[in-house]
């Protein structure tokens, strides 16, 4: 079975932009499993000939839900179904209480989690934008610009051993 990689994080952190970069081909989109996956997009992708399945999680469909509740739900789903989790945070916005809560939840899983600080569009701003996120106490942070591509090669090379 192909490795399942789930993209999670607050709305607007850049999940779908990264999804599109990883997918590249239009025909990579696959049908979601009916029922469980209303707001999730699945794609069959590969990196250096290693195929894997990528899942993008969508926005909030329940108006009464809070953003943190929503992400908590997505995180629990990802912990259950995914093999690898890409948890995206927004480097321009900085660390948010919601990020801290979800990281605490993700710490409890045995599954591989990549803590990604997105919107780092150039190397010159990397250290400054990454700084607040070290407070999370995670071993590794992955600096990324899903939009411009900075850090993408490094991230995918980090993923490779799990594919
Ligand atoms: P999602 O809600 O997590 O799926 O986020 P989107 O991928 O829809 O992106 C939300 C907004 O952030 C859009 O305006 C994107 O253009 C922008 N964005 C995404 N990735 C980057 C990035 O690497 N750098 C910058 N500067 N903006 C980004
Ligand atoms: Mg999206």
TrEMBL record:
GO molecular function, one term: ribosome binding
Domain EngA-type G, first and last residues per copy: 3-163
Biological process, per Gene Ontology: ribosome biogenesis
Domain of life: Bacteria
Keyword annotations of the record: GTP-binding, Nucleotide-binding, Repeat, Ribosome biogenesis
Binding sites annotated in the UniProt record for GTP 1: 9-16, 56-60, 118-121
Family of the protein in this entry: Belongs to the TRAFAC class TrmE-Era-EngA-EngB-Septin-like GTPase superfamily. EngA (Der) GTPase family.
Quaternary state and interactors: Associates with the 50S ribosomal subunit.
Its job: GTPase that plays an essential role in the late steps of ribosome biogenesis.
UniProt protein name: GTPase Der
Species assigned in the record: Desulfobulbus propionicus (strain ATCC 33891 / DSM 2032 / VKM B-1956 / 1pr3)
Lineage of producing organism: Bacteria, Pseudomonadati, Thermodesulfobacteriota, Desulfobulbia, Desulfobulbales
